[in-house]
Design goal:
Elements lengths: L8 E2 L4 H10 L3 E23 L1 E3 L2 H12 L6 H8 L3 H13 L3 E4 L4 E4 L1 H9 L1 E3 L3 E9 L7 E3 L31 H10 L12 E6 L5 E15 L4 E8 L2 E2 L1 H12 L5 H5 L3 H39 L11 E5 L3 H10 L4 E6 L9 H12 L3 E6 L14 H8 L10 E5 L7 E4 L3 E5 L16 E5 L2 H29 L2 H13 L3 H10 L6 H13 L9 H7 L11 H18 L1 H8 L18 H4 L2
Parallel strand pairs: 1-2, 14-15, 15-16
Antiparallel strand pairs: 2-7, 2-9, 2-10, 3-6, 4-5, 7-8, 10-11, 11-12, 13-19, 14-17, 17-18, 18-19
Helix pairs in contact: 3-4, 9-13, 13-14, 14-15, 14-16, 15-16, 16-18, 18-19
Length: 611
């Protein structure tokens, strides 16, 4: 479907990555790819860190006495009570005074606890003397983010064009000195450098900037011009090696849509070249789709011809190609859906209540109860607002009421648009295609010469499945990008449920881990439980090890912790029903010791837990 490399404008260093992008994401074609560089700025920042330690018995007694005795005792009285040399008491009170947890009140030198001292006494710890540390803030004009380093960057130059010579980014370089202590703490906490750890009693108490940011080095950034065949639009993507820079990519895309980016200056891509490549790919795409459907028609016609030559009036029931006409279509459509065990994909240009009635909703709900995912795509116009027969909100609401046993949306419907295709795929085993509009025309109350092929040949079913799967996958990616940009958890759930329906739970996990979206972890676990129960996911899948590794970063005081434990328990139980040993192996993983076993009583063994 894609053009030869010789016709593309790609830096030689990016050929392999361009090939990988096209291979990993069906429907994407890299038009151009070029390396640039951008300036890094470095600001030295002096921070003060206070750590806490457990107090000793004498410190605890003195603080307690200063709180509970009325009037508070003097150092001499404490020495007499404890029968200790006054020098021990004075040394300890001096330490407590230095740590600002205790004061001596004249004129009779009675001790008094400070408000900070009361707080620390309640925690059972004391602050240690502040420790000074020099760290470095790395900023740039492409992104408002700050990268923190424990060591200074060394000066480095690159023989590459400077990106800001071609594109003006609106971001201003952050002035570290203008940050509040709370802002600085938050940014350093997000950096995972282990400098500000409130839960462990290690706190940044102050900071200073004695030197302005200085230009220190250059960094390579790769910009890709990608044509999305499915969405039929150009997108710009920024990467550092294989990592997508989503914030920069989003800014570039906004510039593309507002006409601020000149492709000819950046990549040597003229508007004529872009139009030619786009038209060529779309022509190949449409040709491929038509060839696929025509191949099915030809194979079906050939089988029918051979059947007639043998004197038969009907095709054998086990034939891989069956021609259906008018009154035969709807019963076969419904029986094919009822036979589903894992997944149904439907594309219908229009969707109406004539087909999606209460009886149809009940059928889909029954399938969902048995572990089947349903994905529906619709739309014939190039833009959703141009649809002459838009889907009614009532139909969407009805479909959204269909839930899995884990209370996930089992049936999802999306406008994909720009297609006359009328296709149904069930369990990657059965493909229905033809002239019948599956979700807008019943076909059992009046006949208009419709024909449909039911195909079970793997060689014909899989290309059809891969095409429709790619359309849904592309839509999931689009929803995810919007969810991340707007922190929209509902959109994110739709995305990961599409990936779940497409048996791409690993992709969903990678997205969640990359964005550290821990609130969605329980939803992902529900998808996994659904996949295990419907046997779409194997008990020995490597995704479980990857998911368990994420437990190490889970905050045990997180508000979602109980839900997370409950879902993990459900995963283990679902695995145990298929493979008891695999469940035991999970329970013996080190990451579980402090997490899931909090759900197990002290007398339970892993074996008893999975009974």
């Amino acid at each position: 479907m894609f053009l030869e490399s010789s016709t593309k404008y790609i830096d030689p260093e990016l050929n392999s990555l361009s090939d990988k992008i096209e291979k990993d994401s069906p429907g994407l074609s890299v038009f151009a790819a070029r390396q640039f560089c951008y300036q890094l700025y470095q600001t030295p920042v002096q921070i003060e860190i206070t750590k806490e330690r457990d107090f000793n018995i004498l410190e605890e007694f003195i603080l307690r006495a200063s709180i509970e005795f009325n009037p508070p005792p003097t150092e001499v009285e404490l020495a007499q009570i404890l029968k200790l040399d006054p020098i021990f008491i004075q040394n300890t009170t001096n330490t407590l005074k230095f740590l600002q947890t205790l004061t001596i009140i004249p004129p009779d030198s009675r001790i008094r606890v400070t408000s900070e001292g009361k707080d620390f006494y309640g925690k059972g710890s004391l602050p240690q003397p502040p420790e000074s540390k020099l760290i470095y803030a790395i900023t740039n004009s492409l992104s408002p983010e700050i990268n923190w380093r424990l060591s200074a960057l060394t000066s480095k130059s690159l023989e590459l064009p400077n990106l800001v010579d071609f594109i003006t980014f609106e971001n201003t370089i952050i002035d570290i000195a203008n940050l509040t202590i709370a802002e600085l703490r938050t940014k350093i906490l997000d950096s995972n450098l282990g400098l500000h750890l409130p839960e462990s009693g290690q706190i940044i108490t102050d900071f200073s900037v004695d030197k302005d940011a200085e230009k220190i080095a250059w960094k390579t950034i790769s910009i890709f011009v990608i044509f999305d065949v499915i969405e039929e639009k150009l997108i710009l993507q920024a990467r550092e090696e294989n990592k997508i820079l989503e914030q920069v990519s989003n800014q570039l895309q906004e510039m593309v849509e507002s006409g601020e980016i000149l492709f000819n200056e950046l990549f040597g891509l003229s508007s004529e070249s872009i139009a030619f490549q786009t038209e060529s790919i779309l022509e190949i795409k449409n040709q491929k789709v038509e060839e696929r459907l025509e191949k099915i028609r030809q194979q079906g016609n050939e089988i029918i011809k051979k059947t007639r030559e043998k004197g038969r009036k009907t095709l054998p029931k086990n034939s891989e190609f069956i021609l259906l006409r008018d009154r035969q279509i709807r019963p076969e459509f419904l029986s094919t859906l009822k036979a589903a065990t894992q997944q149904i994909l439907i594309y219908s240009p229009w969707v109406t209540e004539e087909v999606v009635d209460q009886q149809f909703i009940q059928l889909l709900q029954k399938l969902a109860n048995n572990g089947v995912w349903i994905l529906i795509g619709y739309g014939i116009a190039e833009k959703q607002e141009a649809e002459t027969k838009p889907i009614s909100p009532e139909i969407e609401e009805k479909l959204l009421t269909i839930r899995t046993p884990e209370d996930l949306p089992a049936a999802q419907i999306f406008w994909l648009g720009n297609s006359h295709a009328k296709e149904v795929l069930v369990d990657k085993k059965v493909h229905l295609s033809g002239s019948h509009n599956w979700l807008s025309y019943r076909g059992d109350r009046g006949f208009r010469g419709e024909t449909v092929y039911k195909v079970t040949s793997v060689d014909s079913v899989m290309p059809a499945y891969e095409y429709l799967q790619a359309r849904f996958q592309s839509h999931a990616e689009k929803l995810w990008e919007s969810a991340v940009a707007n922190q929209d958890i509902n959109l994110a759930i739709k995305s990961i449920c599409i990936w779940g329906a497409l048996n791409m739970a690993e992709i969903a996990l990678k997205k969640l881990q990359y964005h550290n979206w821990i609130e969605l972890f329980p939803v992902w676990l529900k998808i996994v439980i659904h996949g295990l129960n419907s046997q779409q996911i194997s008990p020995d899948e490597p995704i479980f090890e990857k998911a368990i590794s994420w437990l190490n970063i889970v905050n045990k005081s997180d508000e979602n912790i109980e839900d997370l434990r409950l879902r993990w328990r459900g995963v283990v139980e679902a695995i145990a029903r298929q493979n008891r040993q695999a469940a035991l192996n999970l329970l013996n993983e080190a990451a579980w010791a402090e997490f899931i076993r909090l759900e197990i009583s002290a007398t339970d063994t892993p074996e008893e837990f999975i009974q």
